[in-house]
Amino acid sequence: MKSRKGIIKLVLFTMVVSLFAGIAIAAEDHTEITGVIEQTDTGFVIKTHDGDVAAEGADLATMVGKTVKATGQVTEGDAGKVFNVMSIEEVQEEMKKEVKE
User: Fold this and answer.
1) pLDDT tens across the length of the chain (101 residues)
2) Is the dihedral of CA 10, 11, 12, 13 positive or negative?
3) Any bridge partners for residue 56, and if so which?
4) Rounded Cα gap, residues 17 and 23, in angstroms
5) Other residues' Cβ atoms within 10 Å of the Cβ of residue 90
6) Among residues 54, 40, 42, which one has the least CA distance to residue 84?
7) What global pTM score does this model have?
8) CATH fold of 31-100, please?
9) Are 72 and 59 a contacting pair, CB within 8 Å?
10) How far apart are CA 54 and CA 34, in angstroms?
């Protein structure tokens, strides 16, 4: 009976560790960028210090013209690399100045 409880505890412990490891790995795949959302003829872009980044996902239309911090993943699309926005928020005034400089 004791060995059966031990095995169950070991299995549960392994499952919990695996769950947390999976969450940590998934979090590493996300990228955060800051820039200004613009709408173009081909869709949305985030203008950053390093150039324009094609973006899709989230409700980007409501953020056009605003400086934002976006979290997502870069994937390969039909037109090249695309930033798939999973979450987006408008940034504070101090950060807006940094992005424009």
Assistant:
1) 567 776 777 666 666 555 555 544 444 578 899 999 999 998 999 999 888 999 998 889 999 999 999 999 988 877 678 999 999 999 976 555 555 55
2) positive
3) 84
4) 10
5) 13
6) 54
7) 0.63
8) OB fold (Dihydrolipoamide Acetyltransferase, E2P) (2.40.50)
9) no
10) 13
Domain ranges of the chain: 31-100
Which secondary structure element, helix H or strand E, spans residue 6, and what is its range? helix 2-28
Burial class (CB in 10 A: 0-12, 13-18, 19+), 27: exposed
Q: Is the dihedral of CA 85, 91, 95, 101 positive or negative?
A: positive
Q: Is 10 exposed, middle or buried (0-12, 13-18, 19+ CB in 10 A)?
A: exposed
Q: Locate tokens 């013209």: which residue?
A: 65
For tokens 């979450």, name the residue: 87
